[in-house]
Design brief:
The complex is a heterodimer. By secondary structure, chain A is mainly alpha-helical. Chain A is built from 15 helices and 3 strands. Chain A has a two-stranded antiparallel sheet. In chain B, α4 runs antiparallel to α5. A two-stranded antiparallel ribbon of chain B has the order 1-2. Classes of the chains: A mainly alpha, B mainly alpha. The interface between A and B is large, with 86 and 81 residues. β3 of chain A pairs antiparallel with β3 of chain B.
């Protein structure tokens, strides 16, 4: 065919080739970056002119802006902008691979096309935050099931003073069973909403005040340990009276209550317990001690014997030498002592049962949080291992 | 992960959360005199005012018109009618978790006042010192920093 008749066919063939063969396009026929990456055609002209709104930030647009800023067309060819640091490697790598924003970060080498921006650029060009949509199941389902729900369950076991409760009048029975059954249709949702609000607010409080919560709990634990250690060191020496020991144990068990009226009640409960330590008992058994210089250490402070006695309350006491009464007085004293001991012994046993009951009434650590913590730690370890394989996962 | 830490610490404490046990064991059905609540917590003050109004309704002597200092019969606390209220229906109020350490320290301080002959209690139990602060602050910092530290191990 003559050349003038071949020209149009050649141009048609070239245009078809240009459309069907992207690699052919790399040879200097680009007009804009959108010719290479059609997804960049949808970028907003002025991204900063309008605020994205709550949750309106889009990572796709943000990445597209970064790619658009780093590429340019020079003589019909795609080229990096001078001094750009967003894309890495050769320009041919960028062209040969897919659109860079479609790739997920996998921690590979920087010579493969990846889009990296500074925090400053990201904060300036992509303000706001990106809301998780319902179709991105992995992004919201896993944190919800693995972290949020167990956290809510743990929050229920943390002690608190007040809470939101369902009012009693909401479920107060007024009418017949049929009407009561129908009224459940609105009562149950209202009650559920109240409890949900209470649980969510308590969870928020715990997460935001976790520092003071931990510090206060550890402080109380330290006080408990110190009190128990104090009692243990004084048990053998009988330096404390039974009343003092019991009261100290009650402080351990009731120390989380308001003192009004718990303190007064604790004092009343221990009123029947003996308030004598070993020194006082030995002093009472001896007739050589003048009257007025015995009884409880709290009332004696002047005499050297009293001071020695009060000091011996806290230190291991030395066995003192006291003369015994004569037989008649000893028998009478022994009888009184036996009678008092029977009654006071009963009070002591009752108090022991009460203290033991208060401790046993609490659920064990394993039942309360131990088993749940084991599962939670397993979930955390699994998530950490999974993140190692999916770096950059939101 | 900090929430399980808080739950663990709270369960390690010897003082029980539920004061109903103590209320049942102490069993003090006597005339009590309710002092006005501490005004530092407005919610409790408001509930104390409501409590006084409700308690006055049940008082033994209708002729006694004193409000804040009247002796009244203690029964079980009345039913809650609002949304917010104490966690347990008892006359005893538990402290918030962030107040428990201070609350117990105040109990010990009152114990020391009650038994002045036990002078070493203040020294051995209440005095914090460097060792005491290290036993509380250091574990708290470790527990708070542990979750982000584990996250930072991911490379």
């Amino acid at each position: 065919m003559p050349l003038d008749y071949q020209g149009p066919f050649f141009l048609v063939f070239l245009h078809v080739a240009l459309l069907l063969c992207p690699h052919v396009l790399a040879q200097g026929l680009y007009h804009s970056i959108a010719d290479v990456f059609p997804k960049l055609a949808g970028l907003p002209l002025d991204p900063l002119s309008k605020s994205p709104g709550p949750g309106g930030m889009s990572w796709d647009i943000c990445c597209g802006l970064a790619v658009d800023e780093s590429l340019t067309i020079v003589d019909g060819n795609l080229a990096f902008v001078k001094g750009q640091t967003v894309l890495h490697g050769n320009i041919s790598d960028v062209i040969n691979f897919r659109y860079p924003c479609d790739r997920a970060y996998d921690g590979s080498k920087l010579d493969q096309p990846q889009v990296t921006v500074t925090w400053d650029w990201c904060n300036r060009m992509c303000p706001g935050w990106s809301i998780t949509t319902s179709d991105q199941i992995i992004e919201w389902a896993q944190p919800l099931v693995a972290f949020i729900m167990p956290a809510v369950i743990f929050c229920l076991s943390v002690p608190r003073r007040r809470r939101l409760t369902v009012p009693t009048w909401l479920f107060h029975k007024r009418y017949g069973m049929l009407v009561e059954g129908i009224s459940l249709l609105y009562r149950v949702p209202i009650a559920s909403a109240i409890i949900t609000l209470d649980t969510i607010s308590w969870t928020i409080i715990i997460v935001s005040l976790s520092g003071p919560l931990l510090l206060s709990g550890l402080y109380e634990a330290l006080l408990d340990v110190r009190i128990m250690r104090f009692l243990e060191t004084r048990m053998l020496s009988n330096g404390l009276t039974i009343r003092q020991r019991t009261h100290m144990l009650l402080v351990v068990l009731l120390g989380n209550l308001d003192q009004d009226p718990a303190w007064d009640h604790s004092k009343r409960v221990i009123e029947e317990l003996p308030n004598e330590n070993r020194e006082d008992r030995l002093r009472k058994a001896s007739p050589t001690i003048p009257p007025g210089k015995t009884t409880s250490p709290a009332t004696t402070a002047a005499s050297p014997d009293a001071l020695k006695s009060s000091g011996a309350v806290e230190a291991s006491s030395q066995p003192s030498t006291y003369t015994l009464r004569d037989n008649k007085d000893a028998a009478e004293g022994q009888t009184i002592a036996e009678g008092r001991n029977a009654i006071t012994q009963r009070h002591i046993e009752v108090m022991k049962v009460k203290l033991r009951s208060m401790i046993q009434a609490q659920s064990t650590f394993g039942v309360g949080v131990g088993a749940a913590v084991v599962f939670y730690i397993g979930s955390v370890c699994y998530t950490l291992v999974e993140l190692e394989s999916k770096l950059g996962s939101t | 992960m900090v929430v399980p830490h808080v739950a663990i610490i709270s369960r390690l404490l010897l003082a029980g959360d539920n004061p109903n046990t103590w209320e049942g064991l102490s069993a003090l059905p006597q005339l009590e005199q309710f002092a006005p609540r501490n005004g530092s917590q407005t919610l409790d003050q408001a509930s104390g005012t409501r409590w006084k109004r409700i308690v006055c309704f049940f008082k033994a002597d209708p002729g006694d018109e004193k409000s804040s200092t009247s002796s009244v019969v203690v029964g079980s606390p009345p039913r809650r009618r609002g949304l917010s209220g104490p966690k347990y229906d008892t006359v005893y109020r538990t402290a918030w978790m962030w107040d428990r350490g201070t609350c117990k320290a105040m109990w010990m301080a009152r114990f020391v006042e009650e038994y002045p002959q036990l002078k070493s209690v203040r020294e051995e139990v209440l005095r914090m010192g460097f060792e005491g602060w290290m036993y509380t602050v250091a574990p708290a910092m470790v527990l708070l920093v542990l979750p982000p530290f584990l996250g930072g191990l991911i490379r």
